[in-house]
## 1
Amino acid sequence: MSAPLGVAVVGAGFMGGVHAEVLAAHPRAQLVAVCDLDQRAAQELAGRFAVPTVTDDLDRVLADDRVGLVVVTTPNALHADQAARALRAGRHVLVEKPLALTPDEIHGLLRLATERGLVLAHGSNFVQSPKFRRVRELVADAEAFGTPHLARVVVRNAGPDSGWCLDPALAGGGVLLDLGCHAVEICRWLLGGAEVRAVTARSQRVRRPDGPVEDQAVLLLEFADGALGQCDISWACPGGEEITTEVLGTTGRAGADLWTGMGVDAFSERGFASVWEPNKGWVRPEWEWVRASGYVHQDHAVVEAVLDSVPLPHSPAEAWVSSRILAAAEESAATGRTVELTSTPNGLPLPDAVPGGDRVH
């Protein structure tokens, strides 16, 4: 048996704790370091999982031969630099969303990982959710579902817990970046990675009309095959978090609410081949077991990619595509116009392959 994968968590906030909890329970991973400028937070996180090294110095972490994987969970504006430093130090990297602030920054990280033969993974936990993966499987059943023509993704909550999320210098944007990266990625993924040709967006400042960033937005995605995608995102949703998906096809529909119920809702005029009877009309398979938001599946896949050279189930190149779409959404929201996307913006072709990940669709 190979030695466990040594993991360093950079950023001891809420998301650092989520990844630490998942990876500490993995039989082939071992937490060896926690790094944060807030030493109290770092000590507290390290104490929960008996992590031996606590530091505020990223260079010390990257010089530690025990560290094979660096998990970056710091404020958004720090992601690109810290991930690049880790890759240059020969470390595999998992970056909490967003992978970076701009398509160009993400492209640079993809190139760096490709050149160095390292795994680069990004926070895409909701596409690892068993509920949403099941929805995607049902949508792919063309005999029962027909041709998908509309996808709707809702990602809403009552607002961020961390104050830095409202500081553009640290967050890089508002709800468009924070929740939009999830919604756009889920929407494309549900439709099989379809190409987006145009984006129309509208944004609002609901709770803080004079605030520095938007807290609510709606995006309309026009796909190359004629399908439409709607992304509804908000930090101004009373009552807590809501994350739902729905896809309509010519002969069926399927969707799921991440936090309500144990299964998915599906309808087919013809009958699904892959669900239990009854398989026509409305199907609500409560027997489908759910492991909530997908963090366990996501982080376990990263460990397998590093130790076993198994391709990631979701390529980091998808973050580059999502970043382009979100940049277009920001432009559309600012100008009130629909923004068309070119295939290779800024003359930057996507790397042919990313170690540990499939090529982007």
## 2
Amino acid sequence: MTQSLTILGSTGSIGTSTLDVVARHPERFRIFALSGHSQTAKLAEQCLAFRPQYAVTANEAQAAELRAHLAAASCQTEVLHGEQALCDIAAAPETDGVMAAIVGAAGLPPTLAAARAGKTIYLANKETLVVSGSLFMQTAAQSGARILPVDSEHNAIYQVLPPGKGYLKQNGVQSIILTASGGPFLHTDLADFPAITPEQAVKHPNWQMGRKISVDSATMMNKGLELIEAHWLFNCPPEKLETVIHPQSVVHSMVRYADGSVLAQMGTPDMRTPIAYCLGLPERIASGVPPLDFAALSALTFETPDYRRFPCLELAYQAMQAGGGVPCVLNAANEIAVAAFLANRIRFTDIAHTVRHCLEQDFSGSHHSLEGLLDLDAAARRAAEAFVQQAA
């Protein structure tokens, strides 16, 4: 049976990797809709290759540009734009599965729309759970939506936990361990951190990723967001979540059991592996990733994170433990700070300063509805931007 897919964020790294896997299995998958933010030419190429029924851009100007590209190639894909169009393609009756790969809080509304519609959601947008964990999980439970984690760490955990159980002490699960590469500055002298440039920060040693997530990896905020995501995905208490630095990125995460066993999932660091795992369930399908060559591995090493080097990780732990709307504030402040750093407006070390400042503020409002969360997100962004302007 052919599965109809909507890919939210098809021009990003996860989206392009998803289409690579899909192209290897034309008998299994059909693309119903694609969406991209600003890479109109790339989105046009994808439309010509996969002939989706719909393509969605961020605004009308980009939509007009995409229509011109497609008309010149006699492609019949209908072009839409805006947030409502994203929600529509995510919830459309014609789509079976939704790859949620839009970076940042912008991915929240369409991913929630897919959850309300009871879709199978391939979750690569960690901010959905960071910002709206309780709301999203309740929505999915009420509609019967199926959530499959695409992030390599959460996908690894999903594979080694008892099937369908999540974190459950009565099933012998003692703790969940997320691995982190430590990024490009694991051994950089702390005195040199203020001089780190965006060009240095986006050069991840193991993974090919977008600029924002690469900076998050360098600060280890990415791991902090993943901790919050794991808390919601696996119903795991914060005190049962651990982080360990593993520079080789071969062990993607581990689960510790009460009898002393630790089960780990390993593989070549390539996002096509977890994508193929999710898309193929319950079968295993080819991903295009070369097999792990154990003879070529020199060593697998592990170490404890240093909060002096990675203050953003500690801030994320604090936000997870505080709960409520605090993770939403954490994420919003971080998005503003990272964008400012990438624009050379603030120093690398100012990212953590900005996030800490916002976490110390008292934001009123509800975190129990999408509207309340979006208001909280906007307020935190304003506070972060004001702090950035002072720091610049």
## 3
Amino acid sequence: MKIGRIIAATAAFVVVLLATYVVHSLYLRVNVVFYSAILDGIIATILCSVMLWIVPWFRVLGSAEKLQLVVIWLLLGYGYAISVPTVLDRSLSFYILEKLEQRGGGIRQDAFGEVFTNEYMKEDHLVDVRLTEQLQSGTIVIHNGCVLLTDKGRRLADFSRYFRNNFLPKHRLLMGTYSDTLTDPFRHSTTDVDYRCH
């Protein structure tokens, strides 16, 4: 009897989560897709938690079971936020699939650099989207046309570089060859640039 009610409550949570996400995405302002989807998960959890405590049908569940459900729903909301809208919003892999379909199902392999530079960057407004996300996250500020790291941004960049150098796969398959190239993408980066500012 309890299992059926737990399943019913969780099914209701999924419906409320999806409805909240759709309303938020279609009718409200969204600054950052990931943060917005996280908020949707929290809202759905709160609404369904109220249902758990006030609807008599769920009285058979103890307080501990209800709290466990709340934690599970928060985790499900987080999993949804990061695995569906955020992945689709950020994914170059999905862009490639969509672009292949748009171009009739095939693109010459040697043209992908041009596709990324001339189409992907513009079509997905990549610079605007990523700068907006970083501004909203507090990792950068823009001052007199200069994008500057904040202390938080510097800490995240240091962590990211440390993790990349030490914990990303050292033998990753890249177009038929195993390589550690992505553990240090700046390894062969030029230092002669004229776009720095302070």
